[in-house]
Amino acid sequence: MSSISFDSSLDPILSRRAAIQKIAASSIARRKVYSKVAISVCLLCLVVALIPLVAIITYVAAKGIPAWNADFFTQVTKPEGIPNGGVWNAIVGSLIIDGIAVAASVPFGILGGLFLAESDGPAAAAVRFSADILTGVPSITIGIFGYIVWVKTVGSYSGFAGAFAIAIIMLPVIMRAAETAIRGVPVTLREAGLSLGARRSTVARRVVLPAALPGLLTGVLLAVARGAGETAPLLFTIFGNQFFQANPTKAMEALPQAIYTYSSQPYNDLIQIAWGAALLLMVVILVLNVGSRLMAARLRRERR
Amino acid sequence: MTEPLTTPAHIAQSIGLTTEEVFVGHHAGAAKAMRLENVTVTFGGRAAVRGVTFDAYQREVTALIGPSGSGKTTLLRALNRMHDTVRSAAVTGTVMLGDTDVYGRSTDPTLLRSRVGMVFQRPNPFPTMSIYENAVAGLRFNGVRKKSLLDEAAESSLVAAALWDSVRDRLKVHASTLSGGEQQRLCIARALAVEPEVLLMDEPTSALDPIATKRIEELIGELKDRVTIIIVTHNMQQAMRVSDRCAFLLMGEDRTGELIEFNSTSKLFSEPDDPRTLDYINGRFG
Amino acid sequence: MAGGIFAVLLIAFVVAMATQAVPAFSKLGVSFLWGSNWDPAHNHFGVLPFAVGTIETTVIAVALAVPIGLGTALALAYLAPRRLRAPLSTAVELLAAVPSVVYGLWGLVAVAPLFRTTVEPQLTSVLGWTGLLGGPNQGVGLLLAGVILFIMVLPTMVAISRDVLAAVPHDQVEGAMALGATRWQVLRKVIVPGARVGLLGAFTLATGRALGETVAVALVIGNSAHLAPSLKANAGTIPSLIVSSFGEASGTQLNVLFAAALVLLVVGIGVNALARVFVRSVKRSGAASVTVA
Q: Nearest CA to C291 among B236, A104, A300?
């Protein structure tokens, strides 16, 4: 070893190193406590976020299950004071309205999805952008749009008007899901079809859509879950009807509408019906939602 | 007025020797910055690299070379406890940083990392911070608040990373505006600003063009007076150019990396002790 | 093009709403938008109290949702046990699937009494000095509406925040760790700033949802046409005004409701467009996919 040694306090780097290490060492305890506390707060936030879900599910179940009996599912709603009321009319109404809405939005949604999946130009970007905006527009404005365009034009509240509004809500959901599903179809499959001389539209119908079917179905389930729970659009379009009505050209009842109407009434038997309907609606929607998620997860696994 | 004799380069100059002769030429007495003893890294019970023993000397560049899969990067990341966040990972054996047992019970990994810096394969400056804030990020993490110390460290590290002259007028500009090579030099400055004792470099030029690579290589030579460097490289010419010693790793039959030979770079590349080293060098050099 | 239907729809929306709103403007000018007296029986149609109510409930909701949502998103992206992250994320997102009318019913019947007997008295004793909590404890009102809204917008905030936080490149995390940053410093100084544009998008989308929510708010806000003197007082929002007075409205009042809906629609489109731009830019630069609830 060379005999030259140097005083570390004179070397700016060594002295800075010593200073920094001193500060780091003296602050580490404080920094780690701070880190632990902040992380605990984040985890606490997660717990706080989960409380309402647990609370609402248990509460609605506790209140709703007692309302579920044979009358609840088979009788129409009755005015306060008259026993044995149910939501049969609302169940049928919801089925019809949401059924029409799905039937109307699926073809447009799939065509739109095909368009988005096949083209990447500014037109597709614009469509995607406006579809996204439509998803976020307050649903009450969609109800009012349905009122202006349908109810005012036709001259009466109707199941069709409600289905029209709900379809507008479902459409962007189906379209974006369709786009994802169609993009997931292997290019090789498409090219194989084209190389056999098939036309693009034929390939789309015979090859791409069948291959994308599970993904499309996932999107439809999600759209139904979204549309079936909407209340505000219905309030301006179907009017509500306490009698049985399966004719969609007439004013109809639907589950969300029934919940809204009865929950604001000061009668316990009607609020009881509202709880039963709320539980029914919530269970259906959560099942649809979880179902579509499970399907999507399975699809992703299979793709891998 | 003359500068006080402070850095090794100054000292070497003053007695008419090169820095190498003063420090590298006296292996027997040179201080060991980091010592590895029988270091094994396993993931989920399977060893990725096994039984590595060598020393990294102060004021030297130690290169880890070997084909891909030989565990160079895995080994390097064991030296600043970067495997701590991977739950399935386990490191056995001993790593000593000076007198500190890196995996000792009382050693805090966060504090350890302020003493062992790291530069990564791809430049990863913090894109939302300015050049200045990038340079002092490590100091701020470590609790340094004094403006004079921050400024001093920022300038010193940017000078050392050969970046000061080109960025001194735009320290407030976002780091993302720099070129790839400049970004990597900023990452080097960022690591140097904390004044670590050891700087780990994981293939620092693999994402850079040849000109940027050359500048980083020159930089490595200039930096070793300041910090002990351990560098992973898959490029043998680079290892020859920048390192004083080399550790050659190879994947064994059970797909676990092992240290084949540790030697001075000149010896390892001219007359290696192990025939496998020779094979690898010859294979690589055609 | 089938896709063009959306652009057409959006334009049709605004046009349809505007044609119905025009009579309100021609009869009343534009001043009713900031008039504070709502009394349809005497032809006073000031919607200011409802606009203020909308802003107040939204501010309460977002002020709660931003910190709690961000904390939750950080927990789901980086802090919770790995195995629990996906199921817990789903659980939080399911909150968004619960129909808003169910929130309203639950808020009115289950949460309002809790507010009346416990939350409001407690809060008043702690924060009464601010002067924001005067008047009787009645359960329904601005505060309850804000809190129910918070629960409703939380999943939006969490889902998008979690995605954009998780999309911050891992090499940034390692870079900070290697400098001696603590776990929290990595999150606070690198990950959150790195995701800030996307977080802004999440915040904006949550705000948009809160502004437009209708039935749940209508059920729990107490529907008053007066400027609320206290957070505990009854109030109204623009959506709750529309839904609660639509049934009996006719003539000018109906036109005013359409005008209010037009304002809501334009604000809704603007807020969402802004949010999508924010979230998009993250999607383009970040690697991970961003799912938007």
A: A300
